[in-house]
Amino acid sequence: MKNKIVLIGAGSAMFGLGALGDIFKSKSLEGSIIVLYDINHEALCKVEKITRQYVIDYKLNYEIASTTSITDALINATFCIISIEVGNRYELWEQDWHIPLQFGIKQVYGENGGPGGLFHALRIIPPILEICGAIHELCPDSYVFNLSNPLTSINMAIQAKYPELKVIGVCHEIASLLEHLPCLLNVPFEKLSVKAGGLNHFSILVEATYSETGRDAYPDIRNNAFAYFNNKPEHSLILEMIRLFGYLPITSDSHFSEYIQWAQDVVDHQGVLDFYNNYRKTCLVKQHTSQRLKMGTLPAEYWRVIPIIEGIVKNSGHEELAVNIPNNGIIASLPNNIFVEVPATIDKDGVHPVKSISIPIGFAGLLNNRVGCLNLTVEAVLLKSKELAMQALLVDPTVNNLHAAEKTLETIMQYQSEYLGYLR
């Protein structure tokens, strides 16, 4: 039976054409049926036209289908990859970010953590749950890969409503280790053995050793960190985490800072603004071209969804540095229902996480500051409760003013009533 891979949100050139480019580079997935699904018919048609011509030009052995019907897309699906947003992504993001600031709540970035991350989650989880409801009905044995943010709360909501689904969250932020460690240690990444753990966008390098000798590499990381990061203001929070907690975060300041109440005083705010503006500019550039197909998403060592699918199809047994799955005792200091980001091996039976990761007590404290907010966010969506949304806001460590929180929630619900009007 042919593998059927469904790209949900395929009208996005960044995701749709990028993911197709990655699939087309894979020998193990040749012969697969690729279904492009999106509710935006115009954008979907552009991606389909480019893809069909590319398949013809390069004589590729793939069957391409395109539809705006979620039912037609999902029947007999083997793998479902979800990457969606709702509404005008950047207009809404900037509301998430700036409205709390207007009322005096300090947040650095506003996408995944803090008030902005909460509003983002409240907006995007309902349509993703609708998609997952269709998956549960039409292809319940398929693997579901979620790439949408805020990844942790989305995955927890899916798991809470549809516990039988095989849901895996995938993010490329782990690849920052490929950038920093070779420079910090002056050795190729391939000569290191590493293990990272935590939450998505809020994870640290827990262990690092030199593969040939088994020697602990962390003393060298700590010794070299100041010289390496000191002239990189965009990584000032990373440097402070190493100085104060002794461990290297695996993601950028813009993401990591969203979960820490004192980050506002540490990060390079100009760097965060530059990061956002460059990212926005890149995404808004018209990219519906065959060149996007040739490029793929990111280098294979970064964007790992297709290698994971290949591993399942080939029964590879290879290790992935980071997947997001239910905790179930992997990190003893966190509840079982929380989705954690940990290493895993991949084979024909799916994704198998490491048995356990020991998180240092200081960082475990920071992680546990997120638990209440995550659980309340999920419950607010499932119960359609404005009261629980307010509680989620108040337990977030970045919120320190009750009246500002109340005004922020009321204002966001007015501005985004089309998406948040279900909260009562």
Short structural description:
The chain has 424 residues and is an alpha/beta fold. It has helices at 13-24, 41-57, 70-74, 89-102, 114-138, 151-161, 176-185, 218-229, 236-245, 253-256, 269-284, 290-295, 305-314, 361-383, 386-395, 402-415, 417-420; strands at 4-8, 33-37, 63-67, 79-82, 143-146, 166-169, 192-199, 202-210, 248-249, 318-326, 339-347, 350-353. The chain is built from 17 helices and 12 strands.
Structural class, by secondary structure, is: alpha/beta
CA-based gyration radius? 21 Å
How many individual β-strands? 12
- Could you tell me how far the N terminus lies from the C terminus, measured between alpha carbons in angstroms? 46 Å
Helix content: 40-55%
Strand arrangement in the largest pleated sheet: 3-2-1-4-5-6
Biggest sheet character: 6 strands, parallel
Strand content: 15-25%
Low-confidence stretches: none
Shape: globular
Mean pLDDT: 94
Order of helices and strands: EHEHEHEHHEHEHEEHHEHHHHEEEHHHH
Number of helices: 17
